[in-house]
Amino acid sequence: MGADTTIGLVVAAYMAALLLLGWLAARLTRSPEDFFLAGRSLGAWVTAISSTAASESGWVVLGAVGMAYSGGVSALWFAPGCLVGYLVNLYLVAPALRRESAQSGALTLPDYLAFRYPSHARSLRVAAVAVILLSLAGYVAAQMTATGKAMEAILGLPYRTGILLGGLVIVLYTFSGGFRAVSWTDFFQGLIMVCALVGMPLLALAAVGGYGPLLGKLAEVDPTLVSVTGGKSGKALVSFLVGMLGIGLGYPGQPHVLTRYMAAASHEKIRQSQIIAMVWGVLVFYGAGFLGLAGRLLMPQLATAGDPEQLFPLLAKSMLPPLVAGVMLAAILSAIMSTVSSQLLVAASATSRDLVEQVLGATRSGKASVLAGRLSVLALGLAAVLVAVGEVRVVFWFVLFAWSGLGAAFGPVVLASLFSKKLTGGGALAGIITGFAVTVLWKVTGLSDLVMYELPPAFALAALAAWLISAWQSRRHYTTG
């Protein structure tokens, strides 16, 4: 049996496993709470790993590896930035959000905000749904495009065939099993990701002689590769560090991550998930970084003639037996598919639950709500596949601000709503609108390249807007009351 055939069989088995999990989840899906939150039944391991896998798309196994390859040791600053975001989410947001959403019966993030501030419920739902759809619609399509490229690189399938195959699998298991299927498959895919990003870096480090020789040889190639500042100083260094560490600000505002905490079976499960998720994050982030550093020595040609983001699949094919390489390459698909299914379900939930059901009042029964959710998954999934097949490259522009837009729009509001009684409905609405608007304006005016990454300033201005409007409303209420 040839290497390509073996790899193809491994990936086929992986796809079959995803469909099986979707089918099993569908058998347990009977109510809106089942479809949108898995009946609030997630255990500690599924909560931990599905939430982390959902937040880390192909940028970890491809982008972060390539970033470390090109930037050297200084690129590893992204890891503490992300891990601080994990700490905030797991130890602050998760326990409080799980408690509040269970008490109110909220099934989505817009649901939670509407129940928390009933005087502005309709406006908050509309604004939240608009931000979610604008951020995730293009992102899902771009992830479908990434799926097609991965299928092309791994299996040699034509680009469009890869999109259709990957998109069909994603839509089918999300459509059938809803949140439970997405959580189970994300858990499965998260395990594959962490195994790959521990195994491959260890092999790569061994191939270059260990950590010490790695740094010595990198310094011979270019001294800036072993500098923690990357050769930057002054304002350039400050902007670089703020941007890298500021990535973590996005985590409290990602709906496809926060819903995992809302779906946890109990506070105890949240507590147990904290250590699991943190260990997963450390292994994945630093694994990706060290793989990129070692890969700079193992495949130096990518620095001048090639794409450093293809380092992972190239090393897997060249260093591993076909069967093991197939598992490692499935990790790339896992990283992409775990995120796209989560984002697809969040976008569909916002459309069916918050827009169609709550704002428009079009569905009221449990069966109708589940049907609306499934139809939304089908419609949005097929639309994303069609956009990707048509190679509409503008969708990648959405990817650039999707994480920042969601993080700035929802992060300050979620944190304030959980830990401050001073936030008002108007303040929450102002924070959502300001965070998203500043993200877009910062990006389109080029300030992201000239000054710093857009998330920190957008997050700060959203928090300021929420505070100012809340203070104004409270003072107005006091003087008129």
TrEMBL record:
<keyword id="KW-0812">Transmembrane</keyword>
<feature type="transmembrane region" description="Helical">
    <location>
        <begin position="191"/>
        <end position="216"/>
    </location>
</feature>
<dbReference type="GO" id="GO:0015824">
    <property type="term" value="P:proline transport"/>
</dbReference>
<dbReference type="GO" id="GO:0031402">
    <property type="term" value="F:sodium ion binding"/>
</dbReference>
<keyword id="KW-0813">Transport</keyword>
<dbReference type="Pfam" id="PF00474">
    <property type="entry name" value="SSF"/>
</dbReference>
<protein>
    <recommendedName>
        <fullName>Sodium/proline symporter</fullName>
    </recommendedName>
</protein>
<dbReference type="GO" id="GO:0005298">
    <property type="term" value="F:proline:sodium symporter activity"/>
</dbReference>
<dbReference type="InterPro" id="IPR011851">
    <property type="entry name" value="Na/Pro_symporter"/>
</dbReference>
<keyword id="KW-1003">Cell membrane</keyword>
<keyword id="KW-0406">Ion transport</keyword>
<dbReference type="InterPro" id="IPR050277">
    <property type="entry name" value="Sodium:Solute_Symporter"/>
</dbReference>
<feature type="transmembrane region" description="Helical">
    <location>
        <begin position="368"/>
        <end position="389"/>
    </location>
</feature>
<dbReference type="InterPro" id="IPR038377">
    <property type="entry name" value="Na/Glc_symporter_sf"/>
</dbReference>
<dbReference type="GO" id="GO:0005886">
    <property type="term" value="C:plasma membrane"/>
</dbReference>
<feature type="transmembrane region" description="Helical">
    <location>
        <begin position="319"/>
        <end position="347"/>
    </location>
</feature>
<dbReference type="InterPro" id="IPR001734">
    <property type="entry name" value="Na/solute_symporter"/>
</dbReference>
<keyword id="KW-0739">Sodium transport</keyword>
<keyword id="KW-0769">Symport</keyword>
<feature type="transmembrane region" description="Helical">
    <location>
        <begin position="75"/>
        <end position="94"/>
    </location>
</feature>
<feature type="transmembrane region" description="Helical">
    <location>
        <begin position="450"/>
        <end position="469"/>
    </location>
</feature>
<comment type="function">
    <text>Catalyzes the sodium-dependent uptake of extracellular L-proline.</text>
</comment>
<feature type="transmembrane region" description="Helical">
    <location>
        <begin position="236"/>
        <end position="254"/>
    </location>
</feature>
<keyword id="KW-0915">Sodium</keyword>
<feature type="transmembrane region" description="Helical">
    <location>
        <begin position="275"/>
        <end position="299"/>
    </location>
</feature>
<feature type="transmembrane region" description="Helical">
    <location>
        <begin position="426"/>
        <end position="444"/>
    </location>
</feature>
<feature type="transmembrane region" description="Helical">
    <location>
        <begin position="395"/>
        <end position="419"/>
    </location>
</feature>
<keyword id="KW-0472">Membrane</keyword>
<feature type="transmembrane region" description="Helical">
    <location>
        <begin position="124"/>
        <end position="142"/>
    </location>
</feature>
<comment type="similarity">
    <text>Belongs to the sodium:solute symporter (SSF) (TC 2.A.21) family.</text>
</comment>
<keyword id="KW-1133">Transmembrane helix</keyword>
<feature type="transmembrane region" description="Helical">
    <location>
        <begin position="162"/>
        <end position="179"/>
    </location>
</feature>
<dbReference type="InterPro" id="IPR018212">
    <property type="entry name" value="Na/solute_symporter_CS"/>
</dbReference>
<feature type="transmembrane region" description="Helical">
    <location>
        <begin position="6"/>
        <end position="25"/>
    </location>
</feature>
<keyword id="KW-0029">Amino-acid transport</keyword>
